[in-house]
């Protein structure tokens, strides 16, 4: 089996895992919200833990959605300079933008790790007997994954400067190879 084929299979697996987790979170949120609405309308009550859990699920799905958007190259970007720049300079501009984004995502990852460490030491609130710091693990995980995707984009840009064109396949361009 060729290395490129193994890499492609790993990338497809990673894509399916992140997309699947995001879909699972969305189904859980919609289901729990519908249950809460039904309980409130017909039984004048609800689950005490459901609303805080829904807030965490929204947070997790938003952060995981940011990871998927970064992976797909559909994150928020102000790209006026690249649009106006000559073709020869665009590759360098992409490289600088991806390097800057990687540094920012790395700083956010480090800050999120510090936040989790402090939350583990001083945090007291719990939901479903799970400490609050555990629910907030999405911050360092998501920022770390975003940094990873910017690192991959940076490597692609560096290789492009040396004439090696690698195009990272997006989810819509991939097919699951069945052999």
Which keywords apply here?
179 residues, mainly alpha, two-stranded antiparallel sheet, 2 strands
Give the % helix. over 70%
Main sheet characteristics:
2 strands, antiparallel
Compute the average pLDDT: 86
Enumerate how many helices there are, as a single number: 6
Distance between the termini: 13 Å
Poorly predicted tracts of residues: 175-179
* Shape field: elongated
Radius of gyration: 20 Å
Verbal overview:
The protein is mostly helical. It is built from 6 helices and 2 strands. A hairpin with a 2-residue loop joins strand 1 (126-127) and strand 2 (130-131). The longest helix has 41 residues, at 3-43. It is elongated, with a radius of gyration of 20 Å. Mean pLDDT is 86; it is low at 175-179.
Topology (elements, then pairings):
Blueprint: H1 3-43, H2 50-72, H3 80-84, H4 87-122, E1 126-127, E2 130-131, H5 132-135, H6 138-161
Antiparallel strand pairs: 1-2
Short description:
The protein contains six helices and two strands; from the N terminus they run ααααββαα. It has 179 residues and is mainly alpha-helical. The protein has a two-stranded antiparallel ribbon.
């Amino acid at each position: 089996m060729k290395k490129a084929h193994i890499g492609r299979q790993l990338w497809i697996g990673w894509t399916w895992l992140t997309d699947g987790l995001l879909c699972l979170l969305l189904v859980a949120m919609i289901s729990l919200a519908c249950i809460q609405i039904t309980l409130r309308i017909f039984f004048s009550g609800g689950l005490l833990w459901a609303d805080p859990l829904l807030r965490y699920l929204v947070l997790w799905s938003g952060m995981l959605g940011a990871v998927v958007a970064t992976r797909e190259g559909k994150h928020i970007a102000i790209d006026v300079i690249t649009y106006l720049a000559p073709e020869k300079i665009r590759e360098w501009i992409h490289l600088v933008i991806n390097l800057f984004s990687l540094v920012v995502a790395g700083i956010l990852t480090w800050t999120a790790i510090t936040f989790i460490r402090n939350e583990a030491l001083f945090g007291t609130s719990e939901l479903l007997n799970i400490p609050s710091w555990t629910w907030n693990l999405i911050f360092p995980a998501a920022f770390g994954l975003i940094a990873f995707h910017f690192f991959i984009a940076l490597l692609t840009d560096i290789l492009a400067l040396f004439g090696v064109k690698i195009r990272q396949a997006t989810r819509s361009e991939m097919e699951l190879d069945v052999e």
